[in-house]
Write a structure and sequence with these properties.
homodimer, three-stranded antiparallel beta sheet, 8% strand, DNA-binding
Chain lengths: 179, 179
DNA sequence: CACCGCATGTAACGTGTTACATGATTCA
DNA sequence: TGAATCATGTAACACGTTACATGCGGTG
């Protein structure tokens, strides 16, 4: 869903072709989230199938990568885009956190040391946080910085949650491990 | 990946059949993340194909849902599970946040009011936070509470990020909207 | 009898990933 | 000449969702 509407939004600014869309997407998000070019094309095919964009082939014999297919929004696509902007993003059930599952399962399995799992994750997350801080320093525009900030905020939330887990699990009596 | 290893971990406690696994998974995560039963079976098929579990059919003529297929970990599956617990979860590029993309795209599109997008999302997220707080009060065990806490922490991070965005975007000069 | 719970699956589809394949041009 | 960039795609696969289908047994 994110790519679909991301591409739609970019096309709302300017008609573009697939290859340009990848560049534009990565530039808009400050290269924090690389975008696979194959997915751009398949997503564009679906968008065209659904009537949200149309494409025209432009074969002017100038430069490399000649046969370009330029995509533009349809009226229906514009409406859909506006609806997307107007509606809030819902946290999906599909966004089950692998970390949360890991910690919960670790705390329920006697043979696994939940404390070690939490400590290992915190170490990794703190390293990631340092890398993010460095990346943010070299972000060259506001949007790029905002994307990195979002990842930072969630990494911090993750670390706080790990601390929280460790505190609560340490306080738990030994017998509860099985049930 | 989360379901795959979630099921593997549950099988690490006890051999079980598919239907039981769903119940056990939802119970372990406090019903915060409902699990589709169809996915359980397809995931089990893949796990068996990959040699991480084996299954035996048990057709004792007792009760409803007779022909049960009980899954248990193989040695290979146990090793894989231990590896999973020992290695930290990495934040994937695939976890592009739809919200972040929406806000960034809104701030880059002149015809969209980024402020309105942010405000709408914050209102929705705060409502969700209230619902989560209520849900947490009725969580009946520690693991269930931890799962909800994780969602709460991330919802709070999201709201903080929205505030952060609004502050930075308000400060930005008008001309930057196009480039 | 009709519905619910137990138990197993399949099919179709959307989204995302990696990898492969094609062709032209530009630059070292 | 060979590698990088521009430009387009396809194929295979993993994971997730919804919906459909089957069959038994107990309960209202």
């Amino acid at each position: 869903m994110s790519i679909r509407y991301g591409l739609l939004a970019l096309l709302g600014r300017d008609p573009m072709y697939g290859y340009q869309l990848r560049t534009a997407f990565e530039s808009a998000t400050g290269a924090t989230w690389p975008l696979n070019i194959g997915q751009v094309y398949t997503t564009l095919q679906r968008l065209e199938r659904d009537g949200l964009v149309t494409s025209t082939v432009e074969t002017d014999g100038s430069g490399p990568g000649d046969d370009r297919r330029r995509y533009r929004l349809t009226d229906s696509g514009e409406k859909d885009l506006d609806r997307w902007f107007a509606s809030p993003v819902v946290r999906q059930a599909s966004s089950r956190s692998e970390l949360v599952i890991k910690v919960v399962m670790a705390s329920a399995l006697p043979r696994v040391d939940a404390r070690a799992v939490i400590d290992a994750q915190r170490a990794a997350s703190m390293l990631e946080l340092q890398a993010l801080t460095r990346a943010k320093a070299s972000a060259d525009d506001l949007e790029a910085a905002l994307v990195i900030d979002s990842v930072i905020f969630h990494a911090e939330a993750e670390i706080r949650w790990l601390d929280h887990c460790e505190a609560l699990l340490a306080r738990r009596p030994r017998e509860e491990h099985h049930e």
